Amino acid sequence: LFFFKYGNFIDKLRLFTRGGSGGMGYPRLGGEGGKGGDVWVVAQNRMTLKQLKDRYPQKRFVAGVGANSKISALKGSKGKDCEIPVPVGISVTDENGKIIGELNKENDRILVAQGGLGGKLLTNFLPLKGQKRIIHLDLKLIADVGLVGFPNAGKSSLLSCVSHAKPAIADYACKCNLIISVADLPGLIEGAHMNKGMGHKFLKHIERTRQLLFVVDISGFQLSSHTQYRTAFETIILLTKELELYKEELQTKPALLAVNKMDLPDAQDKFHELMSQLQNPKDFLHLFEKNMIPERTVEFQHIIPISAVTGEGIEELKNCIRKSLDEQANQENDALHKKQLLNLWISDTISSTEPPSKHAVTTSKMDII
């Protein structure tokens, strides 16, 4: 499992790239200079844009110069390529917003700036400069699972508990060798859809996760003494409403619910009450003001009672996350397979209905004999 704290999130980065210049030719002997090195963007699993920015604060990437032609080596060697390490899920665009390419899995690579040609007869043995290009990196998918909850719901505690580590990025050895990334995003507050708090920044990142993990405090939530106390059920309804008001499509993402702080007194009674409310949410919506009621309530694939303090339910939660992601991946693969079959069927149908061309060769029974 990979775990990303919100503070590490940079979802856009602007970089200067330049291919290396070619090497000088050797006019007297017709020698060709080496081509300049190229600049590539390469996807790596354990990489973030923040790491890239911290490692290369100047954000300039220039490839090596091609070797000059000389008597001992008339054909100059190519300049050293420059590779820019980026996280998986990056879209690369140029200064005009035109998409250069996308990096969707580890080791995917895109050429962003070509090296210049070495000096040769066509260039009067003078080398050409490498291509200059400003590129923009845009992170499309930041994590498999995004944690959704109000402040103090215990999201960060849960993350530390699950990963058994305090660093911003930690490894967890899954039994199934599956890599799962979990984004710990800042707590929502009521009115986030109107950009209160870190509203839009949070919700934009939630768009870029495959699934949602709601984390609620079983004892409820109150932001301050000046705000209204909310029960766990009310918290879920309000979180759902905030997602809906920002973008309705967010509600279509697969969702799980972790009910935290089950080590507190009366937690079991409150959990049974919450389960009753979630099984028949419409029976309790009359308790809310009309503008607080979402158009549709979230149907959780799994509801897991946990305690980030005692570790209760943590293993079950991890298993449910893996199971849910596996199910989603299978559904996406099935949908892709059906689409491919449909396209193949359409292609066959079109080709079979097309009249034979005038120059088509037909085979008669006599020919076969």
Protein described:
This protein is α/β, with parallel strands linked by helices. It has two domains: 12-139, GTP1/OBG domain (Spo0b-associated Gtp-binding Protein, Chain: A, Distorted Sandwich), CATH 2.70.210; 145-326, P-loop containing nucleotide triphosphate hydrolases (Rossmann fold), CATH 3.40.50. The chain is 26% helix and 21% strand. The chain has seven helices and 14 strands. The chain has helices spanning 49-55, 155-163, 199-207, 232-246, 267-279, 314-353, 365-368; strands at residues 2-5, 12-18, 39-44, 60-62, 82-87, 90-94, 99-103, 109-113, 132-139, 143-148, 181-184, 209-217, 255-260, 302-305. The protein has a six-stranded parallel beta sheet with strand order 1-11-10-12-13-14, sandwiched between helices. Strand 12, helix 4 and strand 13 (255-260) form a beta-alpha-beta unit. The relative contact order is 0.12. Residues 1-7, 165-179, 186-199 and 358-369 have low confidence and may be disordered. Pfam families: GTP1_OBG (PF01018), MMR_HSR1 (PF01926). Belongs to the TRAFAC class OBG-HflX-like GTPase superfamily. OBG GTPase family. Its main location: nucleus. It is found in: Nucleus, Nucleolus.
Spatial ordering of strands, largest sheet: 1-11-10-12-13-14
The assigned CATH architecture of the largest domain is 3-Layer(aba) Sandwich
CATH superfamily of the largest domain: P-loop containing nucleotide triphosphate hydrolases
Order of helices and strands: EEEHEEEEEEEHEHEHEHEHH
The largest β sheet comes out as: 6 strands, parallel
Number of domains: 2
Estimate the strand proportion.
Answer: 15-25%
Helix content: 25-40%
- The number of helical elements comes to 7
Query: Ends: how far apart?
Result: 67 Å
Oligomer: single chain
Q: What characteristic shape results from the CA principal axes? A: elongated
Mean pLDDT, all residues = 81
Structural class: alpha/beta
Outline the low-pLDDT stretches: 1-7, 165-179, 186-199, 358-369
Number of strands: 14
